[in-house]
Amino acid sequence: MKSFLTENRVIISSVIVFTILLIIITSWIFSGSSGNGGDFDDRSAHYAGPFKVAVVLNPAKPKVGDNSLTIKLRDKNNQPVTDAKIKAVAEMPAMGSMAAMPIPAVMSHDGGGDYTGDFELPMKGAWPLSLEIVSAKTGDARLDFDMSTSRAGVRLGSATESKIPRADTNNKTRSDSVSKSSDRINAAGKFQVAGKYKIKVQLEPATPTVGKNKLTIVIQDKTGQPVTGAKIRIVAQMPAMGSMKAMNIPAVINEAGAGIYNGELELPMAGEWPLAVDVETETLGHGDLIFDLETGQQGLTVASATPAGISHYTCSMHPSVKSATPGTCPICAMTLVPVTKKEIKSGGISMDARRRQLIGVITGLAQEKQLIQVIRAAGRVNFDESHMTDITLKFNGWIGKLYADFVGAPVKKGQPLFTVYSPELLSAQQEYLETLRRRKNKQDTLLRASRQRLSLWDITPSQIRQLEKRGTAIEYLPIISPANGTVVEKTIVVGSAVKAGQKLLRIADLSTVWVEGEIYEFEIPLVKVGMEAKIVLPDQPGKNLQGKVKYIYPYLQGDTRTAKIRVELDNRDGVLKPDMYTHLHLKVDLGKRLVVPESAVLYAGDSRVVFLDLGNGRLQPRKIKTGVRNAEDIEVLEGLQPGDKVVTSGNFLIAAESKLKAGIDQW
Questions:
Q1: Going by C-beta distance under 8 Å and a sequence separation of 6 or more, which residues neighbour residue 646?
Q2: What does the pLDDT read at residue 367?
Q3: How far is 143 from 154, CA to CA, in rounded Å?
Q4: CB of 119 closer than 8 Å to CB of 104
Q5: How far apart are CA 653 and CA 378, in angstroms?
Q6: C-alpha distances in angstroms, 81 versus 35, 89, 111, 158?
Q7: For the chain, how big is the Rg over CA atoms in Å?
Q8: How far does the chain reach from its first CA to its final CA, in angstroms?
């Protein structure tokens, strides 16, 4: 029994070992040699001329710095192509003042139809990759790929049309690959649709050469009828290369017949000359075609045909990027958005939600509302000039005792201000007493005249009665205050000699003060006597006083071109001091007006511009006529309707991007 089990184990072990060896040998036979194409995945193959091409990047997502490129090259029989010379160039297109940057990869054959090379990218962005393949045994081909540091792998942009029969099991896959690229590659001599036109462009000679080349352009509408009187502009452009700037070569076009136009294009040097054809009529509008044209290569191939109404494609983040075809931004790899010709004429732009958020776009509505304008004026507290009193004498004299002895001293009516000695006053007192003793009848004419003389010298009735009781004249007679107030001016001291009519003291009643403000000349019609005024005290935050406009001065200040207004305020608490600075706020109710937020309006010379939000990311500049304004809103007289949505924040950046196109003459 043990012998039987041992024999079975030996047999089983032998079978397992034999099976493993068979698997290893089979794998080596079918995959060990690269010469039969066993490592080539047809699903990733691209077809160009007589070649099948697979492109592998390492890393798969290109990066700034060193990258490697592997190209697997096979012929129509899936056999490796080993004698090819491959020119591989990654090139960032020219943008604005920045020239195009070509980055070549030096390719070498590693065996079995595999070619490798390295390239170093200096910056992030889109780096279209072009491959030129030349094989003496197999043929020639060119492929163009979209490549970017923002995504993995490459995407076929165009390839020379393959003439390989598609009769194998991969026919469907290969046909799909060719059809995708053939959307942009059409045989020359056929009509191409651009906008509302059908356009055919033919070259003579068929293979462009350095020097003069003849062009024949046939233009029809979509029904096949000839289009006459079209404005045609044809320009061949050699892109910038290194330090060499781009060259534009225009063609001279003349109408030769019904829908037929002839022209001549003189190319100064060999190379690639993308040909732009622009057609425009008043009835059918605008149409664009861009052809790939290269000296030494027969015919023209259509690179792009602008859809009807589309001017170009641009990047929402980088509006300086303009492309005739859809695609990705060479700077940030974002999808390009279309810009219509209507937007170009109006100066409008397109802006996606992400871009709007980045620059802080906020919108508001044009609406009818009660417009309150606040006039702000600088003010100053002043004396109430109707409650000021000057103290003077009607005779010469000398000051004796001084009671109101400093500026700012408070005085009350009936209070003595100072005493004064005057020979004339002393003589008048004595004369009155003498007349009083001789004339017992107070109605006597001489007595009345003597009393009146004292009264005219501002001697009060009570002082005259005291003189009668005393019976003797006093040398230093007190001068009594005629009003309540504060001494604001003083020109005398004890012992001062004074003359008749000289101002000795000035007394101001500060229980009422004036606040005088200055308003601009254009604001005068808005201010009325009796309107409410708020007085703001800068040195007392939160303490505001209310008053009314009492007077508008009938003249202007010549140097400042401002008018003065007066507000009277009660000041019995003494809060307001003369010469104190204040602010006057006058509210003017202008009634119901159509307004937009003040921040929505841009000033462009004599023009006033807002950006109208049309929805779906569309923004359009609109000229408006404005009226009065306040701190928040500005009146719109023309250009907007209630409910229109306008940009209120971020409009300066929008204006910088749009350049306001041709829509606003001032920009």
A1: 363, 364, 365, 366, 596, 597, 600, 610, 611, 612, 613, 622, 640
A2: 93
A3: 11
A4: yes
A5: 35
A6: 9, 20, 9, 21
A7: 50
A8: 106
Q: Given this model, what pLDDT does residue 594 score?
A: 94
SS3 of residue 494 by DSSP:
coil
Residue type, 121: L
Residue with tokens 């053939």: 182
Q: Which two tokens stand for residue 545?
A: 């006083």
Rounded-to-integer distance, Cα 540 and Cα 248, Å: 71
Q: Specify whether the CB–CB gap between 91 and 103 falls below 8 A.
A: yes
Strands 114-121 and 129-135: unpaired
User: For residue 626, what are the β-bridge partners?
Assistant: 636
Helix (H) or strand (E) holding 201: strand 197-204
Q: Which helix (H) or strand (E) holds 115?
A: strand 114-121
> What's the pLDDT at 184?
32
Residue linked to tokens 């027969």: 298
Q: How far is CA 385 from the centre of its chain?
A: 53
CA gap 555, 378 in Å, rounded: 17
**Contact status, residue 530 vs residue 548, Cβ threshold 8 Å:** yes
Within 13 Å, how many C-alpha atoms sit on residue 665's CB side?
2
Closest by Cα among 313, 247, 252, 255 to 274 = 247
User: Which are the contacts of 68, defined by CB distance < 8 A and separation ≥ 6?
Assistant: 57, 58, 116, 117, 118, 119
Q: How far is CA 629 from CA 314, 375, 475, 522, in A?
A: 38, 11, 70, 13
Predicted pLDDT of residue 562: 92
Helices of type H across 618-659: 651-658
Q: How many CB atoms within 10 Å of residue 326?
A: 13
Q: 3-class DSSP state for residue 290?
A: strand
Instruction: Using DSSP, state whether 369 is helix, strand or coil.
Output: strand
The phi and psi torsions of 27 (rounded to 5 degrees) equal -60, -40
CB atoms inside a 10 Å sphere around CB 194: 23
In 3-state terms, what secondary structure has residue 157? strand
CA distance 74 to 56: 14
**Quick one: which of 591, 574, 578, 661 has its CA closest to 619?**
661
Residue at token pair 């003042």: 97
| Residue the block writes with tokens 């390492």 | 58
Report how far residue 592's alpha carbon sits from residue 370's, in angstroms, rounded to the nearest whole number. 4
Distances (CA, A) of 379 to 99, 280, 487, 579, 582: 62, 65, 24, 9, 5
Q: Of 415, 421, 382, 342, whose CA–CA distance to 550 is shortest?
A: 382
Neighbours of 299 (CB within 10 A): 17
Residue 591 CB partners (closer than 8 Å, separation 6+): 370, 371
Angle subtended at Cα 151 by Cα 150 and Cα 157, rounded to the nearest 5 degrees: 110
478 DSSP β-pair partners = 419
Q: How do beta strands 410-411 and 562-570 pair?
A: unpaired
**What does the pLDDT read at residue 206?**
83
What are 449's strand-pairing partners?
none
**According to the 3-state scheme, what is the secondary structure of 75-92?**
CCCCCECCCCEEEEEEEE
DSSP string, 232-247: EEEEEEEPPBTTBPPE
Tell if the pTM clears 0.85, that is, is over it.
no
Exposure string of 230-261, with b = 16+ CB inside 10 Å and e = fewer, is bebebebbbbbbeeeeebebebebeeeeebeb
Which residues in the chain come in under a pLDDT of 50? 1-6, 26-38, 161-188, 660-667
**In terms of Cα–Cα distance, which of 202, 174, 371, 424 is closest to 291?**
202
Q: What is the pLDDT of residue 655?
A: 72
Name residue 521's amino acid: E
What is residue 600's DSSP assignment?
A: G
